[in-house]
Amino acid sequence: MQKIYILFLGLLLISCGQKTKETESSTAKETYSLKDGSWHVALTVQDKKELPFTFTTTAKGIEIHNAEERIPVNDITIKDDSITIKMDVYEGVLKGKFTDANTIQGQFEKVSLNRYVPFTAIFGETKRFPKATGDAKAIISGNWETVFSPDVEADRYIAKGIFQQNGNKVTGTFRTTTGDYRYLEGTLNGDQLQLSTFDGAHAFLFTATVTDDTMIGEFQSGNHWKEPFTAKRNETYELPDAKELTYIKEGYETFDFSFPDSSGQNISLSDENLKGKVRIVQIMGTWCPNCLDESTYYSNYTKNNAEVKFIALAFEYAKTKEKAFNNIKRLQKRLNIPYPIVLAQFGTSDKKKAQEKLPMLNHVLSYPTTIFIDKKGKVRRIHTGFNGPATGDKYLNFKKDFENFVSVLQNE
Predict the structure, then answer these.
(1) Widest pairwise Cα distance in the chain
(2) How many domains does the chain have?
(3) Do 151 and 207 reside in the same domain of the chain?
(4) Are residues 164 and 273 located together in one domain of the fold?
């Protein structure tokens, strides 16, 4: 009996040992890494359309490509087969899993807005729209008078398309009264136009059927919004003057506010250290790419013009005050912003709510909006929106006009 018991115990131990080894083997996960080179990413938006962009790997992380724009992203975590790509400034995150060494599947997440867009990333593809191989049947270089949501009065707004075409490759943007749609890149395949951009905050896709003089198309933002647009060639078309859209309402003599910075200290335009100074107030949000472009320019400007005092009012959709201030701190660090950014609002970026915080304005039409205040405390100009680098000459003209006008205020 003793021999039988010892034999049984030995078999049991061998059996248990084998089972443990098999379990460990079956649960082991393969470890992956981003291959060096180009990756093609396709977000799946409404109607099963693909919204593509590309990125390349770098020594520090990756670099997202939109036409000539390059967006560095360095906060990347890979564990086993899982990868998380966190945008350096914005809340957006790409979360996915390697299905093999060349393929990642996952979703683009903006948690505060409850938005999730599926994506697939494939290594080795360099073209943004790889299936667009046909010759262009039209020439769309130039200016286009554009209307979005033309048949719905409540949603209708105007824009100006600015495009450059080389063969079937197209770059450019749409300018609106409140800003621009960033660096768009795509193709004209026959008479089918496809343009997209992805910057970590927004994912835009424009598709249209075109001739030399007309466009009939659709604009999609992520998988939560789409609207039609029409456009006609008009080389002399211009949008309304951005300096005439927002103004101080009758009955208000001054513009002022009192909002906290990240240390909890309230900052106001009437603070003693700001009296007698030219002041520039920037209405913005850390989630807004046009605001990032504007903040980059203002930060560079202040390096040689410290006597001009900038204050940014952040309107954040982050759900908590702590999260909102974390976003502000990240933006300040990322862009090396030397001027204070105060928290005007969190939990929503609704413009009507923003206008309630600034009742002296007729409306808050755009993020960003810039308010120019002279040494005596008088509002001298309000500029709605921002023409970013993607707008080319308009961006250069804005900078020249800004610097000339501030110089006038300084010399008074």
Answers:
(1) 109
(2) 3
(3) yes
(4) no
Task: Quote the CA–CA distance of 62 and 226 in Å, as a whole number.
Answer: 29
Three-class secondary structure of residue 213 per DSSP:
coil
Long-range contacts of 201-209 (CB under 8 A, 24+ apart): 201/87, 201/90, 201/91, 201/92, 201/287, 201/288, 201/289, 202/289, 203/43, 203/45, 203/51, 203/53, 203/108, 203/117, 204/51, 205/45, 205/49, 205/51, 206/174, 206/181, 207/49
DSSP tag of 260: E
Omega within 30 of 0 (cis) for the link into 368: yes
Residue 19 pLDDT greater than 60, yes or no: no
Q: Is residue 60 part of a domain?
A: yes
Q: Are residues 193 and 267 both part of a single domain?
A: no
The token duo for 378 is 């008088």
Q: In this structure, is residue 25 part of a structural domain?
A: no
Are 217 and 337 in a shared domain?
A: no
In a domain, 205, yes or no: yes
β-bridge partners, 229: 148, 217
Q: What's the pLDDT at 26?
A: 45
* C-alpha span between 17 and 13 (Å, rounded): 6
| 155, pLDDT greater than 50 | yes
Domain containing 100: what range?
A: 38-123
Nearest CA among 400, 159, 166, 364 for reference residue 248: 364
Write the DSSP string, 110-122: EGGGTEEEEEEEE
Looking up residue 273, the CATH number of its domain turns out to be 3.40.30.10
79-97 per-position pLDDT tens digit: 999 999 999 999 999 999 9
Output the pLDDT for position 253: 80
288, 384, 272, 270 alpha-carbon torsion, rounded to 10°:
-110
pTM of structure: 0.89
- Give the separation between CA 366 and CA 81, rounded to whole angstroms: 41
Q: Which tens digits make up the pLDDT trace of 334-392?
A: 999 999 999 999 999 999 999 999 999 999 999 999 999 999 999 999 999 999 999 99
Q: Which one of 92, 123, 154 terminates a domain?
A: 123
239 in any annotated domain? no
| Rounded Cα gap, residues 49 and 260, in angstroms | 43
**pLDDT tens-digit map of 106-137:** 999 999 999 999 999 999 999 999 999 889 99
Strand order in the sheet with 379-384: 341-345, 309-315, 279-284, 369-373, 379-384
